[in-house]
Amino acid sequence: MRYRPLQALHAVIEKGTVTAAAHSLGISQPAISNLLAQLQDQTKLKLFERENGRLVPTPEANILYREIDTVVRGLSQVNLAISNLQSQRIGTLQVACTHAVSFGFMTSLVSDFVAENPDVDVSFQTRYSQNIQQWVLSGLTEIGISELPILEKNLEWYPMRFICQLAIPENSPLVDLAEIGPRDLDNVPFIKMGEDHMISYRTKELFINNNSRLRVKCQSHLFRSLLEFVKNGLGVALIDPFTLANDDGKGYVVRPFKPDIFLDMALIHHKTRPVSELGMSFFEKAREEMLKYSVDEMG
Predict the structure, then answer these.
(1) Which domains does the chain have, with CATH numbers?
(2) Which residues in the chain land under pLDDT 50?
């Protein structure tokens, strides 16, 4: 038995008139009458009586209505879910990102995305880059923002490059300099990322090449922590643009550091596993916003 005639019966009984039923289904009144005639032929049952120009359901029609009510409403929900998925109104956005972008930048980005897609749920995780790559690879998250290098061959990645700037305590004599290099920081207390971080070994190499002493006062694995130490006067630190852009700017000044020290990152998703429309929509939005901070797309 075809679904459409049953849907017509349900609509006529639910709405009370053929006109209202036709409007709810988006079809003409003759089409409704034709569907009802098909159903009567299929079932060999008299489903409606005409009283005072109106169709009145028979007891058989009311029994049939009760039997198909759950099915019709269920299929209506399925159609609504498909429509919502096509318009990206429902689903779960799964994102994992490195700590550098997690404070302020990503929370604002995700919040704006949800404001545009209010029925979307969010799974937002902050992890180290290697963990992020493994999560995307295994399907634990759909979209990732990771620092380079990308170690997993089954990941599609869009690389970007960002310049770090030097944050200096506001009472430091270094604030009088318009631009600062390694020799200006010879033996100056320096707060740096952990030894295995790209900013750390790039900074160390630059100081060696300029015959300058890198006096490490403190190490941390978060740019946010480095900046807080600078605010407390512990020393100077190279800070990524996302952390600086989402800070109150109090207690320190920022100066260009030359030669440039770069932070290399990438947006990633699985290379062969299909990415949802919702995920790709966020991927493109994140890429657009991150490029505003980037100096090089690296590809």
Answers:
(1) 3-86 (1.10.10.10), 91-158+265-290 (3.40.190.10), 165-260 (3.40.190.10)
(2) none
